[in-house]
Amino acid sequence: MKTRTIMHIDMNAFFASVEQQANPALRGKPVAVTGSGARTIITTASYEARACGVKTGMTVREAQQRCRELILVVGDNRKYTATSTAIMTLLGDYTPEVEVFSIDEAFLDLTASLALFGSAETIAARIKTRIRQNHGLTCSIGIAPNKLLAKLASEMRKPDGLTVITPGEVTALMEHLPVSELCGIGGKTARQLALLNIRSCGELGRFPLAVLRKKFGIVGERLQQMGRGIDTAPVVADVDAAAVKSVGHSTTLDRDISDPQQIHACLLQLAEMVGRRARRYGVTGRTVHLTIRYADFTTFGWQTTGARQLQRSEEIFAAARQLLDALVLTQPVRLLGVRLTGLQHNGMQLPLFGEERRKALATGAMDAVNDRFGEFAVTFGSVLQREKRGSYVISPAWRPAGIRNVEVE
Ligand SMILES: [Mg+2]
Has this prediction a pTM greater than 0.70? Predict the structure, then answer.
């Protein structure tokens, strides 16, 4: 299986930071967010409060004893939910595969997004900048080949950290890492492992599976894998498809481009991301929007509405491409965006007959491949080749050359 690129993002001292942003008088001060009851505990402490020993879960009295200047704020869930929603939406600009893990944490599968945005570090830097600019908040980001390690990586540097664990580093990293550092191994499991003389992940990974199975049952195998830094769990995007009003993606290009072929290639990748998301949500749309921002930041939008509901990437691409070709670009392009609106929610039904069914099946198979392997890197070259031959629309049966022989599950 191809190496995946998974990101875990964790907002720093989320509730307290949101309060500090909402009320500038709280900034730079020790702040603790509490519940509204009389006998309440600390939900989140600002980094200033943590510096004097205030921790999540402490009673208010205990926290006040540690920090005399502590400012208590009663938590406001609506404020945190609104900020969280805005941040999760922003993350969706980089991949449709966003798993909301908690109000201030998310996993992103970036495997298929790397060719479009550059490296995972580039995406992380953009996400950090946008969250800082839009919300005044910092986050810690971990990048790794799976969710277990991405979560571990984001924990390593706080606040405002960025930590990358490459596949080559995993074995050495796990060797001396205490098992309790892994998400999913709580105090109870750690104590049971200690009874077997297992304290480090290295020890856990080497421990005889039969003994682990006897002691932990079916979880034994999973524990051994965790010790080795292996985690095959997919990032599961949890989407309220019925609430989706539009499906769109845009990207700021690494450098301003004027070359039509490069613009087309980028447009196809965006259309592919939009199409994949539309298929995942079970929606079709009649209107395709194209957004272009020039190097001088002037931004224009165009749209076209056809007679038919669209969902396949090549149809969305063709419509966006038509809009683009009608334009005379007067400057290099800085940002491109494609969006599908006028949505109909019609589930995942396949057309029953003929050519339409064949195309839909082919698209489904391509999605399955792309979801697992992320084909954007190979797409890029193939698209340029195709453009030279004068064909503007990718065939539904088209496969990226590099993974022709892959079995689709
Ligand atoms: Mg957090």
Answer: no
Asked if residue 325 and residue 218 are part of one domain, the reply reads no
Kindly state whether residue 322 falls inside one of the protein's structural domains. yes
Lowest mean pLDDT among 55-64, 120-129, 132-141, 195-204: 55-64
Residue 399 falls in which region: left (phi positive, over 0), alpha (psi -120 to 50) or beta: beta
| Number of domains composing the chain | 2
Task: Examine the domain organization and report whether 336 and 397 are in the same domain.
Answer: yes
The pLDDT, as a whole number, for residue 303 is 93
Do 200 and 332 sit in the same domain of this protein? no
Which CATH number goes with the domain that contains 249?
Answer: 3.30.1490.100
pLDDT tens for 187-222 read: 888 999 999 999 999 999 999 999 998 888 878 888
Whether residue 220 is found in the same domain as residue 349: no
On whether both 278 and 372 belong to a single domain, the answer is yes
Neighbours of 47 (CB within 10 A): 17
What is the pLDDT, as a whole number, of residue 238? 60
Tallying the residues shown for the chain, one arrives at 409
The CATH number given to whatever domain includes residue 200 is: 1.10.150.20
What residue numbers bound the domain in which 175 lies?
169-227
- For 359, which DSSP code? H
Cα separation, 186 vs 151, in Å, equals: 15
Nearest CA to 261 out of 388, 99, 81, 74 is that of 388
> Which one is catalytic: 19, 48, 97, 105?
105
Q: Are residues 324 and 398 in the same domain?
A: yes
Q: Please give the distance, rounded to the nearest whole angstrom, from the Cα atom of residue 310 to the centre of ligand 1.
A: 39
Q: How far is the CA of 53 from the centre of ligand 1 (A)?
A: 17
Active site residue 105: yes
Q: Is residue 210, in this structure, part of any structural domain at all?
A: yes
CA of 11 to the centre of ligand 1 (A): 4
pLDDT in tens, 11-41: 999 999 999 999 999 999 999 998 776 667 8
Span 56-82, pLDDT tens digits:
888 899 999 999 999 999 888 778 878
328: which residues sit within 8 A by CB, 6+ positions away? Answer: none
Distance 103 CA to ligand 1 centre (A): 8
